[in-house]
TrEMBL record:
<feature type="transmembrane region" description="Helical">
    <location>
        <begin position="78"/>
        <end position="104"/>
    </location>
</feature>
<feature type="transmembrane region" description="Helical">
    <location>
        <begin position="152"/>
        <end position="180"/>
    </location>
</feature>
<feature type="transmembrane region" description="Helical">
    <location>
        <begin position="349"/>
        <end position="373"/>
    </location>
</feature>
<feature type="transmembrane region" description="Helical">
    <location>
        <begin position="274"/>
        <end position="293"/>
    </location>
</feature>
<feature type="transmembrane region" description="Helical">
    <location>
        <begin position="242"/>
        <end position="262"/>
    </location>
</feature>
<feature type="transmembrane region" description="Helical">
    <location>
        <begin position="314"/>
        <end position="337"/>
    </location>
</feature>
<feature type="transmembrane region" description="Helical">
    <location>
        <begin position="450"/>
        <end position="471"/>
    </location>
</feature>
<feature type="transmembrane region" description="Helical">
    <location>
        <begin position="394"/>
        <end position="417"/>
    </location>
</feature>
<keyword id="KW-0812">Transmembrane</keyword>
<feature type="transmembrane region" description="Helical">
    <location>
        <begin position="111"/>
        <end position="140"/>
    </location>
</feature>
<feature type="transmembrane region" description="Helical">
    <location>
        <begin position="17"/>
        <end position="38"/>
    </location>
</feature>
<keyword id="KW-1133">Transmembrane helix</keyword>
<feature type="transmembrane region" description="Helical">
    <location>
        <begin position="187"/>
        <end position="204"/>
    </location>
</feature>
<keyword id="KW-0472">Membrane</keyword>
<feature type="transmembrane region" description="Helical">
    <location>
        <begin position="210"/>
        <end position="230"/>
    </location>
</feature>
<protein>
    <recommendedName>
        <fullName>NADH:quinone oxidoreductase/Mrp antiporter membrane subunit domain-containing protein</fullName>
    </recommendedName>
</protein>
<feature type="transmembrane region" description="Helical">
    <location>
        <begin position="50"/>
        <end position="72"/>
    </location>
</feature>
Amino acid sequence: MVLSAGFMFIGLGPGSILLSSVLCGLLLALVALGFFAVAPDRLLRGVAVWRAEILAGLWGLLGVLALLGASFRVEGELGWFPVFGADGPSLPMLAILACVGALAGRGRACVACVLACMGVLALSPLVFGLFTGTALVLLAGRGKRGLCLPFAVLPACIPADSILSVPLLGVMVVLVGWAVSVQRGPLAVLPACIGLFLLGRLLAEVGELPLLPQVVLLLCGGAVACAGLAQAMRQQQALSLVAGLAAGWYGMLVFALVLALSSPLGGADTFRTTVTLGMGAPVVALLGVLWLARRWELESGAGLHTPLARCLMGVVLAQCSVLPPCGGFLVLWSALAGAGYSVEASQPAMALLVVGLVVFFVALGVVFSAGLLRAALVFLPHRGGGAGQVRAMVLPLWLCAVLGSIMAFFPGLWLFVADHLVVGPPLPPVTWQDVTTVHFIGHSARLTPVLVLLGVALVVLAVGLLVRLLGFMPFDRSARQVEAWRQGAPVCDVAAAEGGAEEDVLPLWSAWHGFFFAPAVVTALRGPGTGGALFRRAVFFWRYARRSLFVAVGWCEAQGMVLILLLMGVGLLAGLFVGK
C-alpha cells in the first residue's frame, strides 16, 4: 500500500474481491442495458415510460465502475468465467464508450454500444472480432458499408507478426475512418474507439516497425484526417459537418498513436501522453457537439434559442479547439513537446522528418478549429428564429461541458485514470501538484492549464479596464456612411468649401476621376480586341486595393494603443523564447 498526498494505491491480485465486484458489475450492467434497449413496451409495461432514464442510469453506473477499476488498476479475469476480463486499456476505453452509449439512445444504437463494450472486455481476439464486427454491422446497416465494415476487425484474427498485419491495419484505419464520417450523432465516436483500441493493442504487441510499415500507417491516418476535415469544410448539413470533424480527430489520433508505439524515436514515449489527452476532454466535448448536431437536425434547424444553451455550446466547442488552455490545445502542446524531445535524441535527417510530421499534425489541428467555427455558425439561430421557442432539456450538453472542462483544467486526473490506455511505463504515484499539470515521465516539460486560464482572464480584464478608462473600443466601426463610389477616397467637405471655409484636403479625386474616365482617354487606353474587359478589371482591382489601403491606414490611426500593446506582448514572448 502506497499513500501519496491523498491518493491511495492498493496492489490487487487476479482473485481479489474488488476485481470480481467490478467485472461482475460491468457484465450485469451490460446485460441489463441490452435488455432495456430491445425489450418491447408491452413487456416492460409501466416501466416503459422510464426507459430513457433507466438506460442513462445504467450507462452512468457502467462508467463509474470502469473509472473505479481503472483508478485502482484492476487487472485479471474471472476464474469461473474465463471469457471476459480487464487489463490496462480496456477499462479507460470502457468509460469513454459509456459516455457514447449514454448519448446514443435506444434500439440498434444502444445494442451496438453494448456489443462494443463486451468486445473491449473480451479476452480472446476472436471474441473481440465477433462482438465488434457485429457492432459495426449494426452501425452500417444495409448496402456496401454493411458488406465492407466487418473486414475492419480482421487484424484481430491473425498473428500480430504476420506479413499481412500492417496492410490489414492500414485497411482497418481507412474503413473505420469511413464508418466515422458517415455516422449521424454521437455514434460517430463508437467506430473510432474500436479502431484505436485494436490498433493500440496490435502495435503494442508488435513493437517497433520498419520504416515502410510506419509510412503506410502514417499515410492512412493522414489520409483519413484530411478526408474528414475536407468533409467538414465542404458540407452544409450539421450532421455531416460534425461527422467529418470526428473523422478528422480520429485520423489525428491514429497519427499520434503510430508515432507513440511503432516509432524508434528517442522521445516517442511522450506521444503516449498526446494520445491519452486526445481521448479525454476533446472526445467528451466532441460527443456534446455530435449530440447537438443530431438534435438540431431533428428540430429542423431551430437552433439554440436560450443563452444557457449558447454558453454550453461555446464551452464544448472551445474544449475541442486549439485555443489555450482548452483540451485541443493540451493535445497540440503535448505533441510539440514530444517532438522537441524526439528531435533532441535523433539524427539530423530523422529530426527534420519529425519536424515535418508535427507541423502537419498542428496544421490538422488548426483546420479542425476552423471546422468547429463553421459548426458554431451553423448552430446559431437565424435572425428572429428564436421567438416563441420552448426551452428544451440540455442535460447531455451540461454533462459534456462539465466533464470536458474538468478533464482539460485538471488533466492529471485523466492521465492518472487512463495511465494504461496506451501501453507504456506506468506513471509514478500522483500528488496534488500533478493533478493540475501535464507532464512526461523522465522529462522536465510541464504545463498547468489553470495558470494559463488565469493569465487569459487577466489579459481580458486588463483590456476591459483600458477600454473603460481610456474610453475607446477596439475594432470599432466608423459610423459615417458615404456613397459607394466615394468609399476609400480623400474626404472633401463640399458644404464647408461653398461656405468659404479653408480646406485642408484638395479635391484631387474628382479631377483624377474626370481625367482618366474622359471619353478620349478611355478610348485611347482600351485598345482593340479584349483589352476593354481587361482594362475594366484592372481598374476595379485598383479601386479595391486603394480603398483597402485607406481603411487599413485609418484603422491603424484609430487603434494605435491596441497595436502598441500587441507589439509589446510579441516582444515579451520573443524575449522569453530567444533571450539568453
